[in-house]
Amino acid sequence: QVQLVESGGGLVQTGGSLRLSCATSGRTFSMSAMGWFRQAPGKEREFVASISWSGDMIYYADSVKGRFTISRDNAKNTVYLQMNSLKPEDTAVYYCAASNFRTVFDRRGDYHYWGQGTQVTVSS
């Protein structure tokens, strides 16, 4: 059974930073591409960032480019999302996702396993 557990969410003021973590178990993490998505109230779940199995291919949504950084530690089976210069429009539930593929981009259908999500709230 594949499990993804997100942590690190919370309440932060505009311009602040948070670091999300996603610990995985139950599959060979080092062979999986990983991604972060988010869903704001009343909106569809949207792509935030992805990282290939080796970490050499990284993609970001335009809305977070230059502010967010995705990374992974295969020794710890964990993927991270460093979020800087946060804005109120970044408020959402953030989901970690794992793929059976080694490289993926922004298609939700390419991700096969999902975490339960962690709430990020940015106050103005």
Biggest beta sheet attributes: 7 strands, mixed
Secondary structural class: mainly beta
What distance lies between the first and last C-alpha atoms, to the nearest angstrom? Answer: 40 Å
What is the number of strand segments?
11
Number of helices: 0
Uncertain residue segments: none
Shape: globular
Overall pLDDT score: 96
Radius of gyration: 13 Å
- Give me the strand/helix succession: EEEEEEEEEEE
Report strand %: over 45%
Approximate helicity band: under 10%
Write the SSE topology.
Elements: E1 3-7, E2 10-13, E3 18-25, E4 34-39, E5 46-51, E6 58-60, E7 68-73, E8 78-83, E9 92-98, E10 113-114, E11 118-123
Parallel strand pairs: 2-11
Antiparallel strand pairs: 1-3, 3-8, 4-5, 4-9, 5-6, 7-8, 9-10, 9-11
Description of the molecule:
With 124 residues, this protein is mainly β. 0% of the residues lie in helices and 48% in strands. It is built from no helices and 11 strands. It has strands spanning 3-7, 10-13, 18-25, 34-39, 46-51, 58-60, 68-73, 78-83, 92-98, 113-114, 118-123. The strands form 2 sheets. Strands 2, 4, 5, 6, 9, 10 and 11 form a 7-stranded mixed sheet that branches. Strands 1-3-8-7 form a 4-stranded antiparallel sheet, with no helix packed on it. β4 (34-39) and β5 (46-51) form a beta hairpin.
